[in-house]
Amino acid sequence: MEVCYQLPVLPLDRLVPKHVLSRRGAISFSSSSSLFGAPDPRQLSQRRGAISYDSSDQTALYIRMLGDVRVRSQVGFEPEGRISHPYLCIDFRTLHTRLDYESTSTAPERRVHRLLSFQRYLHSSRLLRGVPQQIPLHILDEDYTGQARCMLEKVGNWNFDIFLFDRLTNGNSLITLTFHLLNQYGLVELFQLDMVKLWRFLVMVQEDYHSDNPYHNAIHAADVTQAMYCYMREPMLAKSLTSCDILLGLLAAATHDLDHPGVNQPFLIKTDHYLATLYRNTSVLENHHWKSAVGLLRETGLFSHLPAEDSLNMERELGSLILATDISRQNDYLSRFRRHLDQENLCLSNASHRHFILQMALKCADICNPCRPWELSKRWSEKVTEEFFQQGDIEKKHKLEVSPLYDREINTVGNIQIGFMTHVAEPLFAEWTRFSDTRLSQTMLGYMGLNKASWSGLQQEQTSVSKEAELGSAGGDTEGSAATTTATATAAARRDSITAQAAGGTSSKEIPQGSKES
């Protein structure tokens, strides 16, 4: 997006031209309106500025402010000559910040209150304490270019490196990726989404993810969104999903862990957290993610132009998708999925069946890390385990019962991942492959088998090293080294075998990408 700032070209007593205020999405204001602190807004004819974009050119946002020195001084611009400054970089969120100054009016000042997520509450408390924000401000006209844009051309590739993409977008992977996918599907134009409201919504969504969470952060949300896109491109879904299904699928993926506190549901319950009380100990986090997403939709007014019934229905279906990611209900969804496949009664022309498949697709996308290439999968595994261990440390500190698998002294990344693959990931992706037996599905199963073998090999290496340390003798050292070498060779051989199987007989370097894109 481009931002154009134009200094006044009209005298102060001249009105804002009608063609400016009549542009699609125009937001007009006056220096005396409530936006700048006065109690009562003036009439339209007295307003002194506008923010608009033309319906024929939605890639540019025009900010027009007409010569009120008080306004310019509040937003940080010095009075200058009447010249134009195109492509001025400003923080998008300053457009929504209420500018306060001393008012000469004696009327009580009207204050606007908003619900704060955990993350925004933390930011506001830091500001009150004088602690600078750790997250850099997002720039409205910062577009994805160069390498990031090249990566987006292959966003349907299963080997998509979301960590690299996040670095290339300066930490804005969720905003950039979701915005790109919505545009690629033509959903912005189809649903007549206001570009300003959409961008503001995505910025607020990314901000409400906790960047200090090792795993449940905005990068994870972006990764799930990219995986969801890959699944929706599968032939069985691509020919059946409606535009509304696609919009809900992408928004659910982007917001499915919104405002995640970095601890699990049992922790919230045993600490008597207010969220556990609010949602009666049932799908506590998922309900919070859903309600947080609805709050941002309503705060930004993204669907405000739709009929009220349609907007409420989209919010309900969004909640249904997000609630399906509750891992404690995994067996319920898996049993229903298996029953449909056994009876062969899935009909994707049926709206309820399509919605159920979207739920299963989002569940797969949420836990697809074991199915990624080893370098990505290992990194995600280390991150989620570190988040587990951090919760375990908190439980120990406060003398609470440590949750299973959350004690760093008795668990390792390897044994946690092997158990997760065996009991959770493998059953789910086996059924997904029954539903959609494609190259992508076979690739995911191949990678998961490869990664499981790699973790088993690392576990054997660690066991050998431990025995070697205990023996402490020359003979023991030799035996331990031999065991380590054997374990490593076995893991490597199994990896080559699984890779060749996943690639359909190709070499280990020619793993299929799960996409037609090269």
UniProtKB/TrEMBL annotation:
Protein residues bound to Zn(2+) 2: D257
Entry's EC annotation: 3.1.4.-
CC cofactor: a divalent metal cation
Lineage: superkingdom: Eukaryota
Active site residues of this protein: H216
SMART domains in the cross-refs: HDc (SM00471)
Keywords in alphabetical order: cAMP, Hydrolase, Metal-binding
Family statement: Belongs to the cyclic nucleotide phosphodiesterase family. PDE7 subfamily.
Protein name: Phosphodiesterase
Organism annotation: Cyclopterus lumpus
